[in-house]
Amino acid sequence: MVELRGKALIAVILAVSGLDFLLFGYDQGLFGGILAGQGFQEVLGNPSPTLTGLVTAIYDIGCALGAVAAFVFGEKIGRKRSIIYANVLVIIGATIQTSSFSYGQMVAGRIVGGMGVGFSTVAVPILQTETLPARNRGSMMVVQSGLIIIGVAIASWLCFGCLYAHTSMQWRFPIACQILFSGLCLCICPFIPESPRWLAKHGRNEEARRVVGRLLDKNEDDAEVKGQLNEILDGINQEAEMGEPTWGEVFSNKNKTRNLQRVLLGMGPFMMNQWSGINVLCYYLAYILENYLNFSTEMALILASVAFTQYAIFSWPPFFYMDRIGRRWTVMLSSAGCAVCMFVIAGCLLSTSYARAAAATAFMFLYMDCFTMGILPVSWSYAAETQPLRVRNKAMAVGVFWHWLSNFVVVMVTPIGLNNIGGNFFWIWGIICFLFIPLTYFFGVETSGRTLEQVDRMFYDEPRLCMGLNANHRKVIKYSRADEENRYAAFANLDEKRGSIAEIERRMSTGSAQVQAKV
């Protein structure tokens, strides 16, 4: 087996993560494109709005169950094997769906496939967070969120391309394409490493050293490799003093790691992801355009496909600014834009006219741009960044579980809400998006530029409920590649004593601040 190193290894990690999240996005856009097909409706037995919402949303229950499985088994089997098992489940679920001839069979396939996606959406962000360099980790993780939206766009255009098929190929082929994405992911998985933090936590220090050396493209005895491993081991040793974590410890603030607070903090962006109302549009945009704005089926699918393509294009700008302005400002600015768009959409739908329909459509496009330029990329990086290592897998699984459970509720109630209150449904999402701004300001900590161990120390050294009110917790760290090398070189010759590492951190922070002031 070829042993990749440096940039090539990072690229493969991003490729596996990207394919997993491309599939995630594809599944989000899939049913919105095939629901209107007469043949598909007949196979499902021409379901009511409630049953239509259920067959669409039941996938999210499967995803939530996958997150539960990750909570129970993920830490034992590791990040890499979790991704492999998850994609096997997706292939099984997609096969059941593709061969469906009844509503019940489709529901079963959606649950199994969802379990695979739920499992992978716990493992993939953790693997990336634990292997990508701290100085530009946020920018690199934009790749996965960008590919979510590319998946949505691919699903929409593919469904439009199959619209005129007069056989079950109209919906079976788009569903079957899930197998392709998972198959490609499985082909690449042998080339990715296990997380060095997971290896070190399980006593496999030499393997961890080897992986760190491969990621940095350095010899195993290099000072930077030693320093990074020292920092990881220092964090593990501190957590080991508290003994083996119990199930209940994930939901407790009894020790200095403040697990409950950090679980809730990590859940925040996941909840924002869903309760912003994005999946009202991702799952039902074509349905809304056709049934509430009076566009034809063809025009609704074309507009939805163009919207998702634009959505995909605007998912990439955060690559250039997320590590510069930080996670907090990225979320707050995005939330403000989303709130304004939702209020305008709701206002436009108070009465029906061509001009109002056009304006509502334009602001649906703009809303998706605002969402993908802030809330989306942060939500899939922040939870893993803020959790302590000893309960990271469990804490991440809790966040992902609530993400998918919220997704289920939103997707399930959307046809019912639109049917009962029409355009007023969008006022709800505008108000919720606005509330994200003060929540982020008061409670959010800044993780940009910080290693996972540095994030730990914010909670160890200066704990408080409203972490965002501390200026140190709001500061964006901007290390260059040279700064990072010097930092780890300084750690290389230390014994694993927290006081020594903390002192070096203090001196480096002071020096960095002085350099920036001179500039």
TrEMBL record:
Keyword set includes Methyltransferase: no
Domain of life, per lineage: Eukaryota
Stated family: Belongs to the major facilitator superfamily. Sugar transporter (TC 2.A.1.1) family.
Name the UniProt record assigns to this protein: Major facilitator superfamily (MFS) profile domain-containing protein
Membrane topology of this protein: Multi-pass membrane protein
Every Major facilitator superfamily (MFS) profile domain range: 13-448
Molecular function GO terms recorded: carbohydrate:proton symporter activity
Organism encoding this protein: Extremus antarcticus
InterPro entries: MFS_dom, MFS_sugar_transport-like, MFS_Sugar_Transporters, MFS_trans_sf, Sugar/inositol_transpt, Sugar_transporter_CS
Listed PROSITE patterns: MFS, SUGAR_TRANSPORT_2
Keywords (A to Z) from UniProt: Membrane, Transmembrane, Transmembrane helix, Transport
Subcellular location: Membrane
A single Gene Ontology CC term: membrane
